[in-house]
Amino acid sequence: MTHTLSGEQPHTAAALPRLLGDVSVAEFAEAHWGRRPLRATAGPVGDLFSGDAVDELVSVRGLRAPFLRVAKDGRTFGDREFTSGGGVGATVADQLNDDLVWRHFEAGATLVLQALHRSYEPLLRFTQDLAADLGHPCQVNAYVTPPQNTGFSDHYDVHDVFVVQVEGEKRWRIREPVWPLPLRDQPWDQRRAAVDEAAGAPPLDEFVMSPGDVLYLPRGYLHSATAMGEVSIHLTIGVHQWTRHHIAEQLTAAALRRLADDENARSSLALGVDVADATTWRDDARVVRDALVTAIDALPDEAVAALLAAKARAGQRVGPLGPVGQLRAAREGTTRVELRAHLRPRLERDPLRLVTRVRDVPLERSELADVEKLLEVAGPVTVSPDLAERLLRAGVCIPSTL
Prior knowledge:
The structure is a single chain. The protein has 3 domains: about 1-240, Jelly Rolls; about 245-315, no CATH class; about 325-400, no CATH class. The chain contains 13 helices and 21 strands. It has helices spanning about 15-20, 25-30, 50-60, 100-105, 115-120, 120-135, 190-200, 245-260, 280-300, 300-315, 325-330, 370-375, 385-395; strands spanning about 1-5, 10, 40, 70, 75, 85, 95, 110-115, 140-145, 160-165, 170-175, 205-210, 215, 220-225, 230-240, 335-340, 345-350, 350-355, 360, 380, 395-400. The protein is globular and about 65 Å long. By secondary structure, the protein is an alpha+beta fold. The protein has an 8-stranded antiparallel sheet with strand order 3-13-10-15-9-8-4-5. Strands 12-11-14 form a 3-stranded antiparallel sheet, covered by helices on one side.
């Protein structure tokens, strides 16, 4: 599957097909996306994560509390129960204490390594690629559960997830939603009674996941899992979908800004109004409703798209940039460069400039061919020394290793 995003260089989907195994992207989109669960087989996933990676992250990386949660039988531990000061030279008080972490893990607690799309390079790159495949931002956590233990009781997530079993086996129980397609501000604990009642009924599906197995769960589906006879490690890739509600938010926000320019909509309510009594301002409400509907109808889709694009830029990071190598390349006259991944670059011609998620770069007409080639080629390109230096210093390109 190849697509081009508004002047962006071509992107060929690879991460999503890997998760789906024998299921085509078209079949997944039509039958499962946002609708119903899917079980698939991705094959070996040791290149993405492992038990050795868990040990490294917990014991020698100096991670702080936000990057780890510890839970057992539905209870989430407080940060102070598994963190301590960083010791000499470190002025932080919430670094992971591997002795405390070990004590809880040995007693049956689940370790949840959070935001691995920021702290672990193989998952950083895979998650960015998956987000590009899906068109929706992604995050990834790892759940590490000792044998015969359950980290979390039945609950639902407010985003879709791909569960990828890395090591060990885990028995999963899936139940129908009690609140289909929940939004970000509609977590399961707001419906705890309904969730608890549903958890007492027979599951919709129950199965064991082995290494390489993948489960796709749309948001809202209840689930719980128990490790089998050995340590279980699985990744949960959260997909933070763009929804119709996001469009509604931007439509109404933009319409309200337009109403601020409407003198009639800024009019004061009557002298002596009682805002708690709708009969005293019902006519005003009718005027405002009509004006609001008119403002929404007059908004071009492109204006809403621009607002959504601004949120998208803030919601997903671009590919990594190493400051030492970047400065060295800029100073040494490197001319073989490539665009950073997931920049969403586009070429604007009036004025002539390259617009990206990190910075805009003004261009000369003589540089147009080089920039067009950068946008067309998913890989390194040789450009003029002056253009290369400007693109490197802007953080738009990185030096090619090829």
